[in-house]
Amino acid sequence: MVINPITLLNPLFTLGKNEREEGLLFLYKDKINSSTLDRILAIAEYQLSTITEEKSIKKKMFNVLVEAVQNILKHGDNETRVSEMYKSMLVIGREGLGFFIISGNVVKRAKLENLQKRLGIINELDNIGLKKLYNQSIQDNPFSDKGGAGLGLIDIARKTGNKIEYAIHDLDNEHIYLTMKSSFSGKE
Questions:
Q1: What order of strands is seen across the sheet that includes strand 98-108?
Q2: Which of 20, 49, 63, 64 has the fewest CB atoms nearer than 10 Å to its CB?
Q3: Spatial distance between the Cα atoms of 10 and 55, rounded to a whole number of angstroms
Q4: Phi and psi dihedrals of 184, rounded to 5?
């Protein structure tokens, strides 16, 4: 399922009954930075509290959303002319009996090869392999220059139990727009 980003007048937007019936629970499309972070997460957490699923699924979904936001903050190219044209986005929705989270943001093209390689490795592994990679990443690279140990994508794959789907859209010679989709089972 491909979601076309919707241009919103109000960047902190919660969805009404019609949109919920169509499967969207939350959509945010604008700049994501430290000043908007708390509001985005508070609204998303509220929207997740309105679904009837198990508490453990809601908790996993919120944790994955936080990881997605952290990836945007740490690895996105959020302060350029291109990022003004192509805003970051977060989407939470229902798909069949399950749910999904989609994130999208501008990324420097120079990061693409490493990102594709990392996603390829993560998507090839089962739960045991992901756990080993997680532990190895902690030992080999305790903290990167961005403040983390590179565990976010591994953690997303572990929490969802599914592959991370992604799409790359060319913007210009220096930038791409990366969308990633994480899917969750509706019942545990």
A1: 12-14, 24-30, 88-95, 98-108, 175-184, 165-170
A2: 49
A3: 29
A4: -125, 145
Tens-digit pLDDT profile for residues 38-96: 889 999 998 888 888 888 889 999 999 999 999 999 888 877 788 788 889 999 988 88
**Tokens 């969802």 label which residue?**
160
Q: Tell me, yes or no, whether 29 lies in a domain.
A: yes
Residue 20 in any domain: the answer is yes
The pTM of this model reads: 0.82
DSSP H stretches of helix in the chain: 17-21, 34-49, 55-75, 81-85, 112-124, 127-140, 152-160
| Burial (Cβ within 10 Å: 0-12, 13-18, ≥19) of residue 93 | buried
- Tell me the percentage of the chain whose pLDDT exceeds 70: 81
- Residues 110-134 pLDDT 10s: 999 999 999 999 999 999 999 999 9
The pair of structure tokens assigned to 43 is 């609204």
| Mean pLDDT along residues 21-26 | 76
| Owner of token pair 């957490």 | 45
178 secondary structure, DSSP code: E
Q: Within a domain: residue 7? A: no
More confident residue, 75 or 180: 180
| Angle in degrees, CA 23, 25, 29, rounded to 5 | 110
Q: Which domain holds residue 135?
A: 12-184
CATH number at residue 32: 3.30.565.10
Within a domain: 4: no
